[in-house]
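Inputs:
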Amino acid sequence: MSILDSFLIRAALAGLGVAIAAAPLGCFVVWRRMAYFGDATAHASILGVALALSFEISIFTGVLVVSLLMATIVSTLSSRGYAMDTLLGVLAHSALAFGLVAVSFLQGVRIDLMAYLFGDILAVGRLDLAVIWAGALLVLALLWWRWSALLTATLNTDLAYAAGIDPRREQLVLTIALALVVAVAIKVVGVLLIAAMLIIPAATARPFAATPERMALIAVFIGGLSALGGLQLAFTFDTPTGPTIVCLAAVLFALSNLAGLFLRNTRI
Amino acid sequence: MSEMPRAGRRMSLVTLQDLTIRHSGNPVLSKVNFYINTGEIVTVVGPNGSGKSTLLRAIIGALRPSSGQVIRAKGLRIGYVPQKLHIDATLPLTVRRFLSLPQRVSDDVAEQALEQAGAGQLATQQMARLSGGQFQRVLLARALLCDPQLLILDEATQGLDQPGSAAFYHQIQTVRQQLGCAVLMVSHELHVVMAASDRVICLNGHVCCEGEPEQVASAPEYRALFGTGTQGALALYRHEHNHSHDQACDHDHHNHEAAE
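Outputs:
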């Protein structure tokens, strides 16, 4: 009946939705050096999938709850000053392992594990699409609302306190946004590659940006381009879609840094 | 200024009463009493780990007291210049954009603050490319935006060379004259402190001694803290202030040793 009948259109819209939410959030992940944090949250979400299937609730809810839990644990521990990279390494991979084991316990459900590990963008339905865009818009709204406070807290926590901003609350905002992005992105790029959608567009945008806002905007553009271009390439070459999207983003990253190198050299 | 500590107490901007702060059980500050009045310049000196930064962080509200109280004047506007600000290389940020965090300010206001802080012409620069001195001035400019009643500087001259920090302190004095704000700074450079401050507080977990600059330099607690032979430079500076004191003979003797 409508344009949404085409699975390709739905896939394209789903990819765009994830890209526009993940890219600006990814900027904060990059600025705050939280890349591993994103990874841990994303990897934990496979446990959410297992729980959702065994309790017969929606995958989105299960993933959202578990990633929120994981993100909260990690940000609490990090404020206590543990050796974070080790701790995150332990948490990220053990959460993934527990999730995979939990899924294997599920009786009678032959789920396609690959779909959750690498995403299954071509199987996105209308409901999925609605969930993805609702989640994406919520993330954008959160970031828009807290933008200045988030940036100040990212720069320096004492500076934030002096301006009457509680950095812990801003951390919570990011934690919630991260859990939301993971929950909506799992269908599109899968558990293993969500962090890539956060970090690569932001890192690609860096050489061309003079202000944080411009970096976020360029990241959105690059994320969107990767999603749409990756979908097209996957269709043409019959490759798995999620990984193809990430591959394209990675190629753009390499090109951007080469260009950045030239820009810097000509400036000097 | 110093002749009215009693009367001044009533219009103090910040008062600390028996402030104690513990980090994982260990007291960093114990029972500190402190106040700063309108227009006053107060300098807190002390060795590393003496709780100077902790004191400032308690005043801006970044740390909660374990016991005791931090009382701020109602609606107090604090301009805060942090000790160091690491700007990640992945974060693009111009000086102009930095000034608009968290509150947006107009170009005129930003330009004026930069001018006041001696950092004019820097607006379009990337924060990450500034020199140490420029960076401190930009931080100062940002702290001036809220038209502060109290300007707080945490080791603001760290990483600046001697002429650099002297120039920076000079700038702060000018700013104080223009805005009439109180200044609270933390430093380990006694000489520069003495040139600028109305009152010096010597801190080492607790308030060792407190008074006008000359008094501190000769107080036995202070001497015990820094030692007489500590960094020739320090002793040499102290020499200048010893003339007005009774025990000058004692000091002079040590200073000569240090100078050699």
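Remarks. Chain A has one domain: 3-192. The first helix of chain A runs from residue 7 to 31.
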